[in-house]
Design brief:
Layout: E1 4-6, H1 12-25, E2 28-38, E3 41-50, H2 77-94, E4 102-106, E5 113-114, H3 117-122, E6 127-136, E7 139-149, E8 155-160, H4 170-173, E9 182-187, E10 193-199, E11 204-209, H5 228-234
Parallel strand pairs: 1-2, 3-4
Antiparallel strand pairs: 2-3, 5-11, 6-7, 6-11, 7-8, 8-10, 9-10
Helix pairs in contact: 1-2
Length: about 240
């Protein structure tokens, strides 16, 4: 029901049995469920999203038109409030918690974590960051555009390499010294090569979506280096 669970000390089966019909009634699916203690006491945190899966051949929604393949699609503040109310009633009737606790219900946000092979297929076309259990081409953390999953269950990731005329570093200027991890490559009009890597799902330690500001219509501004003079002015 949930891709990620952390329920120490709770009756897991009874808890999930109480949650399942509520989510089904609201057309939602579970992403994460965590039982923890913070400065305010004990809290059960549920991260939910729409249970609707994108249909084959469905057009991808635009940046201002969230669809089933968008993280948090359909999980509004009003929906979270209704689900929280229904779950609280179910928990009280079944007496699942001993003492005071809080219930927090929300959506996964734009930087949703990716847990299953189905997640990587569902969010194809989205920018993602993967942390690997072992380096690929000398990199343990790679960022690129998800291109789905191949027939062997490997996650496909498209990356834009540096232009061949301007290698990023010495290693890229000597490609023969790198392991052959590219499934295919194509050169763009700008001279940069778009490479697709196939990564075994078992090799991915963690993955999450990354906000693509260009896709949202924002252009990154050059970072200005703060000098000592401006810092001194800030203290006046």
């Amino acid at each position: 029901m949930f891709a990620y669970e952390k329920l120490p000390g709770l009756p897991r089966e009874r808890l999930l049995d109480a949650i399942e019909p509520v989510l089904r009634a609201h057309g939602l699916a579970g992403v994460e469920i965590v039982w923890r203690t913070d400065a305010q006491g004990r809290v059960l945190v549920l991260t939910l999203e729409s249970a609707a899966a994108p249909e084959a051949g469905q057009a991808e929604p635009g940046p201002s038109e969230p669809g089933p393949s968008e993280p948090g699609h359909g999980v509004t503040l009003e929906v979270c409030s209704r689900v929280s109310r229904d779950l609280s009633t179910a928990f009280d009737v079944l007496e699942l918690f001993d003492g005071n606790y809080r219930l927090e219900v929300g959506s996964p946000g734009l930087e949703r974590r990716l847990y299953t092979v189905a997640d990587y297929q569902r969010f194809r076309g989205k920018l993602a960051k993967l942390k690997l259990s072992s380096p690929v081409a000398g990199q343990s953390v790679i960022t690129g555009t998800l291109a789905g999953v191949d027939a062997e269950g490997r996650v496909l990731l498209e990356r834009d390499d540096a232009p061949r005329s301007e290698p990023k570093n010495r290693a890229e200027s000597e490609p023969n010294q790198l392991p052959n991890v590219l499934e295919g490559a194509a050169a763009s009009d700008t001279g940069a090569a778009t490479a697709t890597r196939a990564i075994a799902f078992e090799q991915i330690r963690s993955g999450q979506l990354v906000v693509d500001w260009r896709e949202m219509g924002f252009s990154p501004q050059p970072r200005q280096r703060a000098g000592r003079r401006s810092a001194a002015r800030g203290r006046q």
